[in-house]
Design brief:
single chain; 151 residues; mainly alpha; 74% helix
Length: 151
């Protein structure tokens, strides 16, 4: 075994180990997005210092852990606004925010519209016949080509 090969093997193992720890932190955020999270808690879960975790996370995923957390919470809120009948305040709490103002401004920044307007627009679209593509596809055709029934 050559020294070069051994160096590459050690580099790969170290990189793989670091990546696994980083993924553990990302999974921790995804599993606990409803709870208040701090960078030091997440970094501790990944066995890294907060600064190192922040830097490596940004390098690998292209966003900071906080940006990832906000995106995750807003995506979950979008789903709940469409599918659930909770008030915006309740959804705000369910996705991990304590301040409705902070939630609304982050939602507006990410989505481009306020949560209430987002809900109104999508609910209005759902009442129009054949507005969504799956509604226009006959069920037998969708089942045959998509493997599922159209709504």
């Amino acid at each position: 075994m050559s020294i070069l090969y051994l160096d590459q093997e050690i580099f790969f193992m170290a990189t793989n180990y670091k990546f696994k720890r980083l993924n553990a932190g990302r999974d921790y955020i995804a599993d606990n997005y409803q709870a208040p999270l701090s960078l030091s808690d997440i970094a501790k879960y990944s066995n890294m210092s907060p600064y190192h975790f922040l830097r490596v996370f940004k390098d690998i995923y292209g966003e900071t852990p906080n940006e990832f957390l906000i995106r995750l919470r807003v995506e979950q809120a979008k789903k709940m606004l469409i599918t659930e009948n909770f008030s915006v305040s309740e959804i705000c709490e369910k996705v991990g925010y304590t301040s409705l103002g902070s939630f609304s401004s982050l939602f507006l920044k990410q989505v481009g519209v306020a949560p209430t307007l987002y809900r109104r627009r999508l609910w209005a679209l759902s009442t129009e016949a054949y507005r969504f593509p799956s509604q226009a596809i006959p069920a037998c055709y969708a089942y045959h080509f998509l493997g599922k029934l159209a709504n």
